[in-house]
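Predict structure. Input: Threonylcarbamoyl-AMP synthase, 322 residues.
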Amino acid sequence: MAQIGTDIEKAKALLESGELVAIPTETVYGLAGNALNPDAVAKIFSVKNRPSFDPLIIHTDSLEKVRKFTLDIPAPLDRLAAHFWPGPLTLLLPKKPIVPDLVTSGLDTVAVRIPQHPLTLRLLETLDFPLAAPSANPFGYISPTTAAHVQDQLGDKIPYILDGGPSQVGLESTIVGLENGEVIVYRLGGLEVAAIETIVGPVKIMAHSSSNPKSPGMLKSHYAPKASFILGDLEKLVPIYQKNGMPFGILSFSRKFQDIPEPFQKQLSEKGDLAEAAKNLFAHMRALDSVDVYVILAELLPDDGLGKAINDRLKRAAAGED
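Output follows.
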């Protein structure tokens, strides 16, 4: 199994030798490898069992380093970087040839961000290459928010997990790019659209795609637990499944069902707080998926602020289960 620790030098040595290391970020844990080494990048796809047409996000620690592997940072995106980096914002930027096509799935843009986690930033400062780091979980499964989650899912496939404690945001980064002068949000995430619009004005939000995605995280059947996942009105769904005797779990926003034992129901936020719900989302989905249930019943949250991003994740989990 993977060793878990806080040894930056050990992580650095492994990465420089072409190995993979799980790293903490404020959003979720990432499965990191040298983004400029095609062999290391291929290893990421292999470990995650990830389809090769899904691009990866590159992580580094400064705008100066970003400019080394991108051709340009358009003015609106430069303003967003100045305001929100380090943080849960990923920018789609035109790439230089030094970035392997395997990272970008052959696209001419690369997804880049500077994560807001002190341990990972210290690691990135010591490296002379950026890290490709999708979420550290098997492809299509629930994203990990603790080192223990990574150990459970990938511990037998990687040598080291850099333990930075629980992720503080719990949602992946918001992905933003520019098309014909218009700012586009390709994936909703930990940075609210309203905050982005305070810097660059109105933006366009793209629905997620089912094939050949332009940016990471846009495959429709993403983030799915092993159990069937059904979105709907819990007040109607729960009695139906209670009546037929099928084992089920409940993922609610804040409501608690009195006659359902605790392991089989999770509230994202008992006080109805969207930020708390975002932080708990993946961990609660994972917890329900770990008990013996045939189906997980869930409900959409209020569709504003972080609720939009959470609902996007819930809809992806339910893709194909309608």
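The first helix runs from residue 8 to 16.
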